Amino acid sequence: MKKIIVTLTVLTMLFLASCTATFNWREVKLDEQQFMALFPAKNQFEQQTFRFENHELTMTMTAAKAGDILFAVGTIPFDTKVISDKELIHWMKSNVAKIIQGKSEQQLIQFEVKTAGTPALIIPAQGYNLKGFGPDGVYRIYWVRWVVRQHTNGQSYIYQMSAIHSFKSEPTVEIQKQTIEQMETFMGGFHPY
């Protein structure tokens, strides 16, 4: 049960973001979490502590809800000498896979993210664009991305960007297109320091 806490944190933010707003994109800089991002409404924060192997890690969730879509960035600081970022991301990916019951294997997307500095650095990232019914019978469009940022001072961060839209039944092609456009805006506006 504890293994899915990272995924459940995103879903928990749905309840915290009970106020529905329209899409009013704004750039938010979060120095403590070491990133800047575009959010479509006023953001809220929550922290969750979870166990990974023999370590306690804390994820700070920054989330905003607009329309019926929840947008969130989870930040996990960690020490690469103690924890393998590859193993932690593998664990996170296995938890995400449980949200959508796809008929085919989920395709991992590889892409690049620019940092928020000058000059900007390009760092690799990966994620999923998922859609379908979950084990609870709810149809979801769910995009998730993972970025690892290692700083020269030894501090490292894993960022989990998530955008999720839940439906009672499968949405029309037009609604799916509108949802995806908003998710693309959110994902494209993320830049770690």
What brief labels describe this structure?
single chain, 193 residues, alpha+beta, seven-stranded antiparallel beta sheet, three-stranded antiparallel beta sheet, 21% helix, globular, disordered N terminus
Structural overview:
The chain has about 190 residues and is an alpha+beta fold. Helix content is about 20%, strand content about 45%. It has helices spanning about 5-15, 85-95, 175-190; strands spanning about 25-30, 35-40, 45-50, 55-65, 70-80, 110-115, 120-135, 140-150, 155-165, 190. A seven-stranded antiparallel beta sheet has the order 3-4-5-9-8-7-6, with helices on both faces. The longest helix has 16 residues, at about 175-190. It is globular and about 50 Å long. The model is unreliable at about 1-20 (pLDDT under 50).
Layout of strands and helices, then pairs:
Layout: H1 5-16, E1 26-30, E2 35-39, E3 44-52, E4 55-66, E5 69-78, H2 85-96, E6 109-114, E7 122-133, E8 139-150, E9 156-167, H3 173-188, E10 191-192
